[in-house]
């Protein structure tokens, strides 16, 4: 393939595919991820669309999460070929589009998980207001806004990704191409803040509020949906943390003055990018595995519909918790009414007793 219409890479072969060990390991990870994640997410989508009898808020959020993860899994064969050949063979346009879609699905996944956590918090703390956010029209608007924002904040991948020519060997690389260090800082700081710190900050606050509320009540909170969503949150964090840690390294590298430290940081992020990116992909194939273990009690009874019954069970848990909290509030109100009634009865009894005493006195006096 002729090496034309591409930018010469000033860092020689120090690209994300420049290290044999990291590219081989990354290709193996992506292969396993594709074999598990692509059919797994398709099964989740099919279960919700074809087998679920009612689409609750949690079910619709999981459906959107499966669509985001499944789309990401569908892209993995392109990256497997890239890591194996160490050569980008499908042009500059596909270089931009594929990495743009990867970034968009990363943003979509974490923000959908954030929406799940917010919904759980509202259903636990303000059960009487949950009807405000459970309307299908409201939910569809929220999801539309989330996907729209995801598409906008992923634009840096279209701007900075392009095919570069390796300087000392034949082949092409699809790498970020930043004219200035401030471009590096802008892109990866944006990913770090909007793709990790901000949504995870909201998630942590939500679960702190949920735990505080649980401690204040006497209800049994061993609910499938809370455990499942918490497992999704932790899994996403574990697999994306190395990627964002490497973003911090690259931003530090960009801000660091020339010298030994800058050179060392450069080697770390270039050699680690292929592996950490592949590890991040694992989070998209992990969710169907979590659903399988969470719903294994349904398998014998429901067969292929077991996952749909699991998601319906999470919806039942939400409505049951709301009813329990509402019932608790009503019980408190009833108790207060009973107390008031008892006090009134005592007052009436006192008045009757006093009246009887007065009548007796009048009769005796006569």
TrEMBL record:
One Pfam family linked to the record: 7tm_1
One of the protein's GO biological processes: phospholipase C-activating G protein-coupled receptor signaling pathway
Membrane-topology descriptor: Multi-pass membrane protein
Alphabetical keyword list: Cell membrane, G-protein coupled receptor, Glycoprotein, Membrane, Phosphoprotein, Receptor, Transducer, Transmembrane, Transmembrane helix
Domain G-protein coupled receptors family 1 profile: 40-291
Compartment(s) where it occurs, according to its Swiss-Prot or TrEMBL record: Cell membrane
Recorded GO CC terms: plasma membrane
Main location: membrane
Family: Belongs to the chemokine-like receptor (CMKLR) family.
Protein name as catalogued: Leukotriene B4 receptor 1-like
Gene: LOC106528622
């Amino acid at each position: 393939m002729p090496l034309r219409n591409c930018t010469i890479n000033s860092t020689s072969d120090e690209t994300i595919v420049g290290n044999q060990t990291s590219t081989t390991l990354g290709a193996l990870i992506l292969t396993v991820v594709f074999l598990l994640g692509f059919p797994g997410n398709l099964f989740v989508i099919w279960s919700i669309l074809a087998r679920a009898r009612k689409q609750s808020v949690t079910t619709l959020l999981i459906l959107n999460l499966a669509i985001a993860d499944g789309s990401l899994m569908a892209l993995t064969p392109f990256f497997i070929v890239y890591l194996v050949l160490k050569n980008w063979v499908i042009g500059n346009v596909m270089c931009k589009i594929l990495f743009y879609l990867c970034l968009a699905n990363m943003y979509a996944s974490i923000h959908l998980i954030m929406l799940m956590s917010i919904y759980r918090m509202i259903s636990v703390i303000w059960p009487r207001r949950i009807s405000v956010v459970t309307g299908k029209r409201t939910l569809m608007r929220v999801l539309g806004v989330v996907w729209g924002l995801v598409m906008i904040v992923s634009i840096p991948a279209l701007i900075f990704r392009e095919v570069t020519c390796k300087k000392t060997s034949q082949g092409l690389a699809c790498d970020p191409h930043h004219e200035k260090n401030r471009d590096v800082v802008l892109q990866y700081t944006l990913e770090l803040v909007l793709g990790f710190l901000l949504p995870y900050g909201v998630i942590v606050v939500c679960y702190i509020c949920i735990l505080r509320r649980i401690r204040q009540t006497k209800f049994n909170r061993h609910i499938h949906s809370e455990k499942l969503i918490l497992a999704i949150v932790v899994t996403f964090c574990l697999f994306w943390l190395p990627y964002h840690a490497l973003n911090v390294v690259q931003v530090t590298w960009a801000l660091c003055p020339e010298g030994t430290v800058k050179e060392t940081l450069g080697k770390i992020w270039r050699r680690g990018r292929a592996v950490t990116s592949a590890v991040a992909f694992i989070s998209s194939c992990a969710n169907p595995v979590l659903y399988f273990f969470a719903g294994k009690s349904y398998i014998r009874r429901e067969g292929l519909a077991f996952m749909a019954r699991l998601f319906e069970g999470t919806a039942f848990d939400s409505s049951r918790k709301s009813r329990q909290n509402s019932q608790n509030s009503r019980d408190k109100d009833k108790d207060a009414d009973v107390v008031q009634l008892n006090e009134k009865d005592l007052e009436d009894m006192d008045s009757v007793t006093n009246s009887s005493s007065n009548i007796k006195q009048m009769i005796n006096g006569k």
